[in-house]
Specification:
mainly alpha, Rna Polymerase Sigma Factor, Chain: A, Arc Repressor Mutant, subunit A, 2 domains, 8 helices, sigma factor, transcription regulation, sigma factor activity, transcription, RNA polymerase sigma factor
Amino acid sequence: MYNLQMDHRDEVDLLIALQSSSQAAFAQIYRLYSARIYLNILKMVKSEDEAQELLQDVFLKVWSKRHLIEPEQSFRSYLFQIAKYTVYNFIRKNKLEKQVQHYMRQQIEEGYTHVEEDLSYREKELWYAETIEQLPPQRRQIYKLCKIHGKSYAEVSELLGISTSTVNDHIVKATKFIKDRYLNRDATLFVAVAYLFLNQLK
């Protein structure tokens, strides 16, 4: 592991060089700090591969924002702050993706949707996300809060300043809209497949 102790004046000179787009200075900073940052990230994500990817993201941000660095300030604190927010954003995004996937699986199990051979699961997710975006703004917001973020009707009611019955009404209408779009898509797909099949028989 590299030693993080460095004379303050030397570090200031190194950061000034980094501000001037010195790749040698950037490489030295990476050697000085990467091991400690990596271990810190690893403690949070528990995955060596993900920790390595996030480490690269951290130093890419350092390079892209090098002009904003204040050499006289604590660079170590600055670097650890970047690492912390990079990991938090990763965890938040990963959690949201898992929530969407869980809800999709739940709907599939309930017979609300089912996986056809003509579409991959990833395409199904994309269709679902695009269909939600077609809802009216308030209905879309309520649907996402309840069905994707897992908030209760009471929580959404308090958050948006509307009654729980209004929340329920939006959820019912949004669910019907999504289901109808799905069934219509199935009908359209069936006609298209039938058309291609009949043409092959000619």
